[in-house]
Amino acid sequence: MTDSTEKPRGVDFVREIVNEHNASGRFGGKVLTRFPPEPNGYLHIGHAKSICLNFGIAKDYGGKCNLRMDDTNPTKEEVEYVESIKNDVRWLGFQWDGMYYASDYFDQLYAWALELIKKGKAYVCDLTGDQIREYRGTLTQPGKNSPYRDRSVEENLALIERMRQGEFPDGSRTLRAKIDMASPNVNLRDPVLYRILHAEHHNTGNKWCIYAMYDWAHGQSDSIERITHSICTLEFENHRPLYEWFIDQLGIHKPQQIEFARLNLTYTVMSKRKLLELVRDKHVAGWDDPRMPTIAGLRRRGYTPESIRNFCAEIGVSKTDSVIGMNVLENAVREDLNKRAPRVMAVLKPIKVVLTNYPAGQVEELDAVNNPEDPSAGSRKVPFSRELYIEQDDFREVPPKKYYRLAPGQEVRLRWAFFIKCHEVIKDPATGEITELHCTYDPETRGGNAPDGRKVQGTIHWVSAAQAQRAEVRLYDHLCKVPDPDDVPQGVDWKTNLNPESLVTVKDALVEPSLTKAATGDRFQFERVGYFCVDTDSQPGALVFNRIVSLKDTWAKIEKKA
Ligand code: ATP
Ligand code: MG
To answer: What top-level class would CATH report for the domain 106-213?
Structure first.
């Protein structure tokens, strides 16, 4: 697949800052960004925004972008996540320059911690977590100094070494920066640099039992890699003074931290913690469940990398938090697939049509255009015969006004085929249910036009009964039933907002025979129904399709209004 569907990007405020730096020569014209996920879950569409921004800027400026695993939290991180992150970044269409781990820098970080201690800028503190919080004060009240704040350099050096050697239990001591307990910025009130945690790390094994906190690891990792622009989300704006304080104390390369608004989407959740909860409690089939807002879920659902990149370009980046409608993401994939997904016919809820004037046993092959939007996509043959299936929804025994599909005495066009007219409705005498529609076809209308110029208002899709393939079709809808699922009263689980109808499985849909050859990941437009993708569960002879997104159903809209 090509990039031909991608739209050009405008200059956002982050690029404006880069332009200023390039003009002033601050980084000597260099641009080096990084995407720094914590490998504690799969990437989601919010991460895609950050990926497009970081890799996109590197690309636009002839710079580089690193992938760095921010792996300072051994109890939550796993190699599976590392692998999935690499896979998802590549699938989105980006290739990193350097691949690093914050854990690569543990030795250097520790050496720098000793340096801070020697400068009298860090101390070992024996307060418990709760006490630290209590001493920290609040937004309106200053904190108070820890009683351990004035330990001598020698004592601090001895204690940090014993911490590192594993002499003390988890949580019993921390190393803290000595900044200002009265700072209006709470982040500067002697933040913790190291905590004791006897846990095995996916990279460093049991070498360490003290682990750097995010703030201590992050900026220094940026500095080691000589990152120029450290792009992060808005909640880190208040951490920027600390980011710069560490770097200034150490006198090392200083990147520019730039904060942008994180992506929020309606009808879903975007925190890894919540997504993990869904996976763990089996509300979904896994991280790649097609209802998940993860990259893996969107990929399995059938989203294209181009559609996600276009979506990110369209929403842009700004400094104010907002919530983007899920329809914007859906439109991005519709727009992309409209241009390149082959059209096929599939009937999800079949009802049989018998053409009483069509010779029994005869089969003819009709030409069907693969994609009216793309002449190079060519055409295919679809078999036509006396017995067909159409959608139950495309027939009404008593048609309402403006219903232009099949009804008794009403003529419609079968897509790529003939005009047909219904003359008899066959019902099960016991239940009264419609079992068959008896119709006549007009042989003069082959290809869909009447030589006498007679018009029909409706065109419906169909499959030929004998050649159609049975398929399972999974109809996906929003993961959550309300636009803002996080908005729950105190004490109420957000999961009460999960949509119980987020997956409706149709076991016996019928698809045209050309789909027998469809392979996992192939995407199609089922004419008049939506865009679908062959799921990873699909097998030859047992096809499984995921609905990526529906088409806009005009009749459903008319009916809703009425
Ligand atoms: P979560 O809260 O979902 O766990 P996180 O910010 O902790 O997200 P990280 O793995 O630390 O996840 O994020 C890696 C990068 O992706 C960071 O630079 C972060 O700012 C960015 N990022 C994460 N979520 C979003 C989002 N919703 N929109 C934009 N960028 C995001
Ligand atoms: Mg994080």
So the answer is: alpha beta
